[in-house]
């Protein structure tokens, strides 16, 4: 490569690595200096509402209610199922012993959460998806972590996937753990988290990414979002590539819209306030750069490599790595065995491609508030 092209490739490589390499490593280096605050066991366990938004979940909702009842929480537990335009799920949930809020028309998950939070009987609310299986005492771990007065919400831990997908969730957990050590994390997951009812503000009607909106909204208003890795839940993997693509591009596109709505948190005022500066750094490093500038830089770097392939061995190796990752991705979709390094490479490549799908959906205004999903 010429000197100018080498400098361009280096700059693009650094930019592409910010979200997945540079930010996580820098975060880890800073967080290592902080000891995690100990989580105290309460002298008396407060009452808690477990809120389950549900649509087309008649086949799993009874097991979910049983899972909550047997989770080992030592205080009072109210299980509140919000059946979002789904009479059959409402009927099964009521028969299984839950309190049911039946919405006769479908509103979408964000608005179902608004109605459920308004109806919850207790200050501390655990929110969990109908298909999420809680590990024993997950509720207790979340409640203990939520009790410090500065915490508005606490994220749980997702156990999902195999190979590259499992590696991705472990990577996310590492980032959440380090962010939480520094005070607060963006990493709420709708499958399992706890929140104070008094800290909750209704989600706007144009928001589909409820968990990301809740985290940013709390942080904007001065609350901390904690992380409790012992509060664990399991979910089945997403499934086919078609379902995965639909869900991931929808989530990413919706997340970009959330960041646009909350763009004041990323503006010049954030630089002058240490707390807001820390939040802005998390948004840029954990979410925004990884979803936009990083993938665009990666694509441009591929272009530079293609233009330099005849003269540069490094460029040829870079392109060959992408070819291997692409082949591994295709093989996985045909249920062929792929070694772990190939599965991880395929996952990274797939997430970069998904970013373009998410950007396209955001720019088109494709914000699906009531998405199609298979009945469970």
Automatic annotation (TrEMBL):
Signal peptide: none annotated. Its EC number is 2.4.-.-. InterPro entries: Glyco_trans_2-like, Nucleotide-diphossugar_trans. It is an enzyme of class 2 (transferase). Keywords: Glycosyltransferase, Transferase. Pfam families: Glycos_transf_2 (PF00535). Residues 49-201 form the Glycosyltransferase 2-like domain. SUPFAM superfamilies: Nucleotide-diphospho-sugar transferases. GO terms for molecular function: glycosyltransferase activity. Belongs to the glycosyltransferase 2 family. This is Glycosyltransferase.
């Amino acid at each position: 490569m010429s000197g100018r092209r080498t400098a361009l490739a280096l700059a693009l490589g650094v930019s592409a690595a910010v979200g997945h390499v540079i930010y996580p490593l820098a975060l880890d280096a800073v967080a290592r200096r902080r000891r995690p605050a100990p989580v105290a066991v309460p002298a008396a366990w407060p009452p808690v509402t477990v809120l389950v938004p549900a649509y087309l979940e008649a086949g799993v909702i009874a097991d979910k209610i049983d899972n909550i009842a047997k989770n080992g929480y030592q205080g009072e537990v109210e299980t509140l199922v919000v059946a979002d335009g789904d009479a059959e799920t409402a009927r099964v949930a009521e028969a299984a012993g839950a309190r049911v809020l039946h919405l006769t028309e479908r509103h979408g998950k964000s608005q179902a959460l608004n109605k459920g939070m308004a109806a919850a009987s207790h200050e501390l609310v655990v929110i969990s998806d109908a298909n999420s299986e809680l590990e024993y005492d997950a509720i207790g771990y979340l409640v203990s972590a939520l009790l410090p007065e500065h915490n508005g919400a606490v994220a749980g831990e997702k156990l999902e996937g195999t190979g590259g997908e499992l590696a991705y969730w472990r990577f996310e957990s590492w980032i959440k753990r380090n962010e939480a050590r520094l005070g607060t994390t963006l990493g709420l997951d709708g499958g399992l988290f706890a929140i104070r009812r008094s800290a909750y503000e209704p989600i706007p009607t144009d928001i589909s990414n409820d968990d990301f909106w809740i985290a940013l909204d709390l942080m904007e208003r001065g609350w901390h979002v904690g992380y409790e890795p012992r509060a664990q839940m399991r979910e089945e993997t997403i499934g086919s590539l078609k379902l995965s693509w639909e869900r991931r591009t929808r989530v990413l596109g919706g997340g970009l819209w959330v960041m646009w709505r909350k763009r004041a948190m990323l503006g010049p005022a954030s630089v002058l306030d240490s707390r807001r500066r820390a939040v802005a750094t998390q948004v840029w490093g954990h979410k925004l750069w990884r979803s936009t500038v990083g993938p665009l830089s990666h694509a441009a770097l591929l272009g530079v490599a293609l233009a330099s392939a005849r003269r540069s061995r490094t460029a040829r190796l870079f392109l060959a790595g992408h070819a291997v990752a692409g082949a591994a991705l295709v093989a996985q979709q045909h249920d062929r065995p792929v070694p772990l390094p190939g599965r991880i490479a395929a996952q990274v490549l797939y997430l970069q491609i998904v970013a373009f799908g998410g950007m396209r959906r955001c720019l088109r205004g494709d914000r699906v508030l009531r998405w199609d999903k298979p009945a469970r």
